[in-house]
Design a protein that fits this description.
This protein has 15 helices and 18 strands. The protein is α/β, with parallel strands linked by helices and about 450 residues long.
Length: about 450
């Protein structure tokens, strides 16, 4: 956390906590503006001086202990995006008087280009190339009609599972992991109350867990069915653009299950064949994983082409002479009852449990936790399902993070990403973790 060089009496420091306390009076108005890093300016203002069109983010300020304790609280109308107004905002918090709250507005974040981000990364460290973490936005950038949750949802045969559809409708989401998490929670509650499913006459918890398992299996099959059939369906010029992007990094981590990254790395024209080592070597005619140090590419949540077979982890081979038809091989294995290594769990704790149960996933996750220097994140929302990733970053020695934003920086989704990232930076302010944001489209993938 860096402070401005302005007069000391006008400036104070700030940090984010997981809880907040309402101050009995707005003591901190005299602090003026709080600089928490080179990009973010937080200004403390009187609640009576709030201009409804200018409020971006609302914070509560807690008891003064040498630092202002800040906690984000949404004060914006869910439809209009405008500030609720002092009276309605305080009522929504259950407060009697607006003077009991100090409102803080957060200045807009400067979104730089990908090239500018690379230039800044070199200023942070010139010794090693940055690390890259890929989220679902990597596949979405290729084709949202294939890799969006809505597209995957629409490809599932729901004819025998009408109640699961109702769960998605109730949650107002296409997100499989969110639905799985809610079903797991409901199953635990049903166990406590001893609930019986009226349709089957059996324990409701068992039915709920069966439905959660169905969703996990449906997601695997949906990804496999929606996926391009073979590598040659991906135009060579699109693969080359993505290969150019990947060459900027020394180590790749991905949370995606699909084959797009793998195809890019093995396509001879990409120039990346053998560039990012994945630790698989030929053993008795199969590609078997060995825990080599300093791997170049790691699948943190598994992938379609990775299978646990006879106590070892195998990678489906890419045969250029046969058109690279990995999807056909994967479909045949799934049809024979073999599921790919695939982390799809409701809660972060369940994800971690699954990760810890696999030697490969555990190795990859620990490698990510050991990251140093600069981290680029592309296509990750930093939402609730990603908390184990944020926790791993907190345990790492990463100094600077560059996070992609797709579309308008002030969109609700991008504001949520910014708030999560800023909270992460403040939680790790003791080691001077910094965050910048870059325009996802300027990376020119696909």
């Amino acid at each position: 956390m860096r402070e401005s060089g302005r007069p000391a009496e006008k400036w104070c420091r700030a940090r984010f906590l997981s809880s907040y306390h309402i101050s009995p009076s707005p003591k901190f108005q005299k602090c003026g503006r709080v600089f928490v890093d080179s990009q973010i300016a937080i200004e403390i203002i009187s609640p009576l001086a709030v201009a409804s069109a200018q409020i971006k983010s609302i914070f509560l300020v807690g008891d003064w202990r040498g630092e202002a304790e800040l906690q984000y609280v949404s004060g914006l109308h869910s439809t209009t995006g405008r500030f609720l107004g002092v009276s309605n905002f305080t009522k929504s918090l259950g407060l009697a008087a607006p003077t009991s709250v100090v409102l803080i507005s957060c200045a807009s974040v400067n979104c730089i280009s990908f090239q500018e981000a690379l230039d800044r990364a070199k200023e942070v460290t010139s010794q090693n190339q940055p690390t890259l973490l890929l989220g679902n936005g990597f596949g979405m950038a290729y084709d949202p009609n294939i890799f969006s949750y809505q597209a995957l949802f629409n490809s599932v045969d729901w004819s025998r599972t009408e109640r699961i559809q109702q769960v998605f409708a109730h949650l107002r989401t296409w997100d499989f992991e969110l639905a799985i998490r809610q079903l797991d929670i409901a199953a635990n509650v049903a166990d406590i109350y001893g609930l019986i499913d009226s349709a089957t006459g059996t324990k409701a918890s068992g039915v709920l867990r069966d439905d959660a398992y169905f969703l996990k299996d449906a997601l695997i099959r949906a990804v496999e069915q929606r996926h391009p059939a073979h590598i040659f369906e991906v135009p060579a010029n699109r693969l080359l653009r993505t290969a150019k992007f990947l060459r900027n990094f020394g180590q790749l981590f991905t949370l995606n299950y699909d084959l797009l990254l793998y195809w890019t790395l093995v396509q001879p024209a990409s120039g990346l064949t053998g560039y990012f080592k994945d630790g698989f070597r030929t053993v008795e005619g199969a590609l078997e994983w060995t825990a080599f140090p300093n791997l170049g590419v790691m699948y943190l949540h598994g992938a379609l082409h990775l299978f646990q077979q006879n106590g070892r982890l195998e990678k489906i081979k890419y045969y250029q002479a046969e058109g690279g038809r990995l999807i056909q091989q994967i479909a045949e294995r799934i049809a024979n009852g073999h599921a790919p290594l695939f982390v799809c769990a409701g809660s972060n704790q369940q994800k971690l449990t699954h990760i810890q149960s696999s030697v490969y996933l555990r190795h990859c996750f620990r490698s990510f936790e050991s990251s140093t220097g600069v981290l680029f994140i592309y296509g990750l929302s930093l939402g609730g399902p990603d908390q184990h990733i944020l926790d791993a970053i907190s345990r790492s020695s990463i100094k600077h993070i560059f996070i992609s934003l797709y579309g308008a920086p002030n969109s609700p989704g991008n504001q949520a990403i910014q708030q999560k990232a800023q909270a992460l930076a403040h939680t790790n302010s003791y080691r001077n973790l910094s965050v910048d944001f870059y325009d996802a489209s300027s990376a020119e993938l696909w």
